[in-house]
Amino acid sequence: MSVSTRAAWALGFGLVGLAILVGPTLGQQQDSGVRKTNAGNATPKPPGPTIIGTVDLDAVFKGYEKVKADSEEFKSAALVKKNELMKLMTEAQQEQEMLAKLAPGSVDSKKHENRITELKAQHQAGMESAEREFALKEAQALATLYKEIQAMVTAVAKYKGMTYVVKVSNEPISGANPNSVMAAMSKTVVYADPRNDLTNDVIYNLNRNYKAAGGAAPKAATPAANAQPSGN
Question: How many CB atoms lie within 10 A of CB 40?
């Protein structure tokens, strides 16, 4: 499942432009509020303690059984559509074989030529329609899964009294795999205390909710936000 790079860049530039336009105005408003507060001799409330947790989202997606079920369902639907399109191509091939036995320019040969053209057009239209349909389904499924995972991360983090959760990757680094080395070097978090890692708790609770809901009907699954996280 992937996101359009072009759309991501467009959104990024749009947000940068917006920040440039409204940044000074917001800054002026905030400065004004700070000066007013200081002038009133108000004592600012100190922030609460910061407790940071970590989660490996890649591992969560791999360990969440609903992701696997949705993937199998997606593959099955794609296979059905592929077989439907293959029937059109098989028929077109049969028409081509019959056309080869007819005299060029005859009435029958023109009928077969027209049928072949029609089948090819149906196949092409079906391919384009299937690509759009499955791209949309994929995006919707990914959005639903991410929201469920995000809600469960939030529930577990609150249960453990954490104020922030950052994404990490626990993929092993191998000198034989240059990509793993480059990926590790690009990570924002170099070290995180494994005692504050929520990955296993998130996977456990997601799967517990999914199984409790029957597991076979993802749309009827209990929202992850209503789950009662378990301790380690």
Answer: 7
